[in-house]
Amino acid sequence: MQTPVIERIAGPVGLIETASVLCSLGEPMPSRALLLLHPHPLHGGSMGNKVITTMARAARDVGLPCVAFNFRGAGASEGVWDHGDGEVFDALAVASRMASQGVRELCLAGFSFGASMAAKLILVLQSEQPDLRVSDLVQVAPAVENFPVHPAWLTGIAPYVLFNTDDEVVAASAMQRYADAIGVSASVHPEGGHFYHGHLPRLKADVTAHWRDRGLV
Question: How far apart are CA 155 and CA 150, in angstroms?
Fold first, then answer.
C-alpha cells in the first residue's frame, strides 16, 4: 500500500492523528474523497485496523482519495474515550478539514463502532457543514446493538450494509433488523466473523464493486 501521509490536525479535545492516501490534509484536495471511521477504541480499534486498511487499499486501487483517523484516545490522538458522544465531533473535525481543503462530496465508510459513528456524522454535517454533500455510506458490521443508528440520520442516503452471519461481536439478527428498518438489502455472507479474518479480499472486492455500481470510481 502507498505509504499514508500521517498528519495531526486540531480537534475538539486536542490533536487528531490522521492518515491520508492519494491526498494530504495540508494541501488542496479533490472534490470527492472518502473518510474512514475505525472500530471501538477501548477494544483495540484504531485506524490501523485490518478492515479499515483493507478499505483504504480498495480506495487507493480505484483512485479514490481517502483519509482515516484515530478517535480521541486512540493512537496519537489526544483526549479520552467519550462513550460515542464526543467521537462524532472528532469525525466532524476531520471532515471539516477535508472540506476546507476542497472536498465537496464526502463518501463515508465505517467498521463496527465506526459504522454507527459514520451514520451519526451525516446528521451533524447537515448543520455544521451544509455545503459538504455526503454521497455514500458503507457500513461494515455496524455495532447497532450498543450504538444504535436512527433512520432519520440517513436522510437521502441508502447505506451499503455488510456483515457475516457468524459475527461473534454483533448479533447478525440485530444487523438484519437494522437493514430492514432502513429499507436496504444487506450483503450477507455466512463466514468471516466480525473481523473478516481470512475474508478480507472478499470484503475489498465487495466494497470496490459497490463504489463502481454507485458511479463513485
Answer: 10
Please tell me the total count of domains within the chain: 1
Strand ranges of the sheet holding 32-37, from the earlier edge strand across to the other edge: 5-11, 14-21, 66-69, 32-37, 105-111, 133-140, 160-164, 187-189
Q: What is the pLDDT of residues 85-130, one digit of tens each?
A: 999 999 999 999 999 999 999 999 999 999 999 999 999 999 999 9
CATH no. for residue 47?
A: 3.40.50.1820
Cell numbers representing residue 55 in the block: 478499505
Query: At residue 69, does pLDDT exceed 90?
Result: yes
DSSP H or E segment with residue 111: strand 105-111
DSSP 12-74: TTEEEEEEEESS-TTS---SEEEEEE-S-GGGT--TT-HHHHHHHHHHHHTT--EEEEPPTTS
Three cell numbers written together for 40:
471501538
Q: Taken in order 134, 139, 144, 146, is the CA torsion positive or negative?
A: negative
Domain that residue 87 falls in: 5-213
**Residues in CB range of 34: below 8 A, 6 or more apart:** 55, 59, 64, 65, 66, 67, 106, 107, 108, 109
What is the reported pLDDT for 155? 85
Q: Which amino acid is at 86?
A: G
DSSP string, 132-181: SEEEEEEEES--TTTS---GGGGTT---EEEEETT-SSS-HHHHHHHHHH
Instruction: Tell me the per-residue pLDDT of 45-64, one tens digit each, with 9 for 90 and over.
Output: 999 999 999 999 999 999 99
